[in-house]
UniProtKB/TrEMBL annotation:
Enzyme class at the top of the EC tree: transferase
Protein's UniProt name: Hydroxymethylpyrimidine/phosphomethylpyrimidine kinase
Metabolic or biological pathway, per its Swiss-Prot or TrEMBL entry: Cofactor biosynthesis; thiamine diphosphate biosynthesis; 4-amino-2-methyl-5-diphosphomethylpyrimidine from 5-amino-1-(5-phospho-D-ribosyl)imidazole: step 3/3; Cofactor biosynthesis; thiamine diphosphate biosynthesis; 4-amino-2-methyl-5-diphosphomethylpyrimidine from 5-amino-1-(5-phospho-D-ribosyl)imidazole: step 2/3
Gene label: thiD
GO molecular function, one term: phosphomethylpyrimidine kinase activity
The species this protein was found in: Paenibacillus chibensis
Keywords on record: Kinase, Thiamine biosynthesis, Transferase
Annotated Pyridoxamine kinase/Phosphomethylpyrimidine kinase domain residues: 13-258
Record-linked InterPro entries: HMP/HMP-P_kinase_dom, PM/HMP-P_kinase-1, Ribokinase-like
Reaction catalysis annotation: 4-amino-5-hydroxymethyl-2-methylpyrimidine + ATP = 4-amino-2-methyl-5-(phosphooxymethyl)pyrimidine + ADP + H(+); 4-amino-2-methyl-5-(phosphooxymethyl)pyrimidine + ATP = 4-amino-2-methyl-5-(diphosphooxymethyl)pyrimidine + ADP
Entry similarity comment: Belongs to the ThiD family.
Residue spans crossing the bilayer: none
Top-rank taxon: Bacteria
Alphabetized Pfam families for the sequence: Phos_pyr_kin (PF08543)
Amino acid sequence: MSTPRALTVAGSDSGGGAGIQADIKTFQELGAFGMSAVTAVTVQNTLGVQGVYPLTAAAVAEQMEAVGRDLGVDAVKTGMLFSADIIEAVAEKIESFGWRSVVVDPVMIAKGGAELLRRDAVEALKRKLLPLALIVTPNIPEAEELAGMRIVTMGDRREAALRIAEYGVNMVVIKGGHAPETEEAVDLMYDGTAFTRLAGRRIATRHTHGTGCTFSAAITAELAKGLPVPEAVHTARLYIQAAIEDSLELGGGSGPTNHWAYGRRKESLV
Ligand SMILES: Nc1ncnc2c1ncn2[C@@H]1O[C@H](COP(=O)(O)OP(=O)(O)O)[C@@H](O)[C@H]1O
Ligand SMILES: Cc1ncc(COP(=O)(O)OP(=O)(O)O)c(N)n1
């Protein structure tokens, strides 16, 4: 069997809980070979983002070209893209390589409030990148921005998913981590025809730094292994659930999730 190859195009998180670091750990844990194209270096820990140093669009494109031409890519995810220039360069490379298993995590604002996507880049994200996506995974504030509406109820979420799908993306998962606290964390998946409610136990913890990155990276790893999107999303939910449940209690703020929890639990079942 050939080695599944997964590429992340995202920012570096020095604290290791989100961004490139979360993605590569997740790829590794799920059995995909991880590669990266770094878009920006962030100065970050569990207390928040203290600095953002973007790379040039050319530097991002060259990294994608280097790995795409030599190692090959079975699935790719995008995370923090920061500027319209970088989004355009990334879209151009995805198109030129003809990559189809494309997961777009439309990272906009970190939990602490730092801007990880410039306001003037949202239009490029909608027009250039979403049409190339197999699946897009906004959280509620990101879905509000993409759909141009407020989301309060599950009905609002369904309407937002329909609007986001109109940009040409095949599947939309609106994540529920930011929904008002209930006993369940509920994500809503729209596949172009039907809606599926994906519910799990909501864990009471402040250690949820990098949940969105980890979730989308898990989907990407499963797609790289050849699994269909619904199965990839199902595994990603189990993966993030375990990672939050067994969080590591690191740092003085919102700490990282536990990227090896899912694998350890599976091992203990064998
Ligand atoms: N406290 C929690 N308990 C269980 N699952 C959670 C919790 N917070 C987030 N999740 C899950 O983690 C994933 C990421 O969601 P979310 O936190 O909304 O993304 P983001 O990090 O992009 O803001 C989703 O599958 C969501 O349901
Ligand atoms: C470099 C970098 N990329 C993305 C994020 C946002 O990650 P996310 O999974 O949405 O987690 P929070 O920031 O909301 O904890 C980031 N912080 N840094």
